[in-house]
Amino acid sequence: MIKEALQYIVGLGKAEIHGENGQTYSDKKLHLIEEPTATPFTVHTLSGLVSYIKSEFDGDEPVILHVVSPTSVTVKSALNSDQERDYFLKAEALLPTFIFNDWYSTEKFNISLQSCFIQNEDRDVMLKVVGNITEDQVKTVSDDGISQAVVAKVGVASVGNVEVPNPVSLIPYRTFVEVVQPESDFIFRMQSGPSCALYEADGGAWKNEAVDNIKDYLGCSLKEEVEAGRVTIIA
Q1: 33-56 pLDDT tens trace
Q2: pTM of the prediction?
Q3: Of 27, 139, 212, 214, which is most buried by a Cβ count within 10 Å?
Q4: E strands, 121-194, where?
């Protein structure tokens, strides 16, 4: 115990620096005193991010806008002496919830189509199909693995065979509202219950389109700052 105490006391002394074979050594462990960095706050629109940049609230030093994903953009500084960055702001898109590759009741699916997707021709066709299917009717289904046919009401008091479109081209809300929402293909399936599901069928290509749309929006909104070298946008 006495030996350990003496070693501890000796260790409290000033570090000695020695040179050996062209390298520098210390007889004590050194701890880096890091330069403090900023912590981010969050906004939920690209316009909010643009307003922050234009306000120069935290100074006019050059910053990097990193389009991380279709729903996330960060604002960071250049590297400091410790090779770290200030992390000023994060923009996260607020989006309606729709789960792809999962089954919905026809009622919930109908509501989701109207609240989570932008109107287009294929969405309107799906609404007509889904809105006129009842549980006993959907049991009459023909399916060749690509398209399906179901019995649906096609008039005031009549029923008929209606082909379920496939694939369908839809425009769900999947990125910031300030930019154009990418349109992409989906596989539309129905089963008894009745229930409906959408499966993504574009291999994720919409994500690249969304990221490009965000980059274009920021580049246009911050044109002067980009040209002045104060803002760099990467995606």
Answers
A1: 666 777 888 999 999 999 999 999
A2: 0.76
A3: 214
A4: 141-143, 148-153, 159-164, 168-170, 184-191
